[in-house]
Amino acid sequence: MTLWLSFVAAGVLASLAGALWRVWRGPRRADRMMGAQLVGTGGVAVLMLLAPLGSWAALDVALVLALLAALAAVGFVKATSPDGAGDPEEEEETPRRKADG
Amino acid sequence: MADVATVVLTGIGLFFFLAGTAGLMRFPDTFSRLHALTKADNLGLGFIALGVAFQAATWREVALLALIWALALLAAGTVSQLVARAALGEEETR
């Protein structure tokens, strides 16, 4: 059982590598943010898988990591549009800073 | 019996994770990648959480796993909306 859980954790780490490739190559900022979010979720998955192997305290760490991944994306959205709402209808009045591609 | 369930469920979870990541890497457009990403997040993580829940000794771990998955579901849903809106304004560069 430990062998299988470690194998699945290694598989999830491989998917993390794919996400990092997207972060490196992603033409636009949103792609890089998506890659970062997948890294966060992959981290949560690995922690979950290693919890039964190591100590079950890893679940608390996974909970915090899931929360931080969400807050990182909120930080990204706040950076692109000043009021952070990112509402297309409301964008017309406030001309937004042209985000680089 | 619990081990068999764990093996099967974590295997399905891993499959969805890899499918989501392959989608994230292969899809041509930002928004289709976002689509693939949320699949990996919700389904992959959900099946892995379900699989690991069979290994849990006490009910506390099962509750914690369910909590993490619920948070990941909510976070992935809202975050993909936010990122999509943030990406909507930028010029279309491939």
UniProtKB/TrEMBL annotation, chain A:
Disordered as annotated region, ranges: 80-101
Entry keyword Glycoprotein: no
Membrane-spanning intervals of the chain: 35-54, 61-79
GO CC annotation, single: plasma membrane
Protein localization: Cell membrane
Pfam families, alphabetized: MrpF_PhaF
Family designation: Belongs to the CPA3 antiporters (TC 2.A.63) subunit F family.
Protein name: Multiple resistance and pH regulation protein F
From TrEMBL, chain B:
Keyword Metal-binding applies: no
Membrane in keyword set: yes
Membrane-traversing stretches: 6-28, 40-57, 63-84
Coiled coil: none
Superkingdom of source: Bacteria
GO molecular function, one term: sodium:proton antiporter activity
Keywords, in A-Z order: Membrane, Transmembrane, Transmembrane helix
Name the UniProt record assigns to this protein: Na+/H+ antiporter subunit G
Organism the protein comes from: Rhodosalinus halophilus
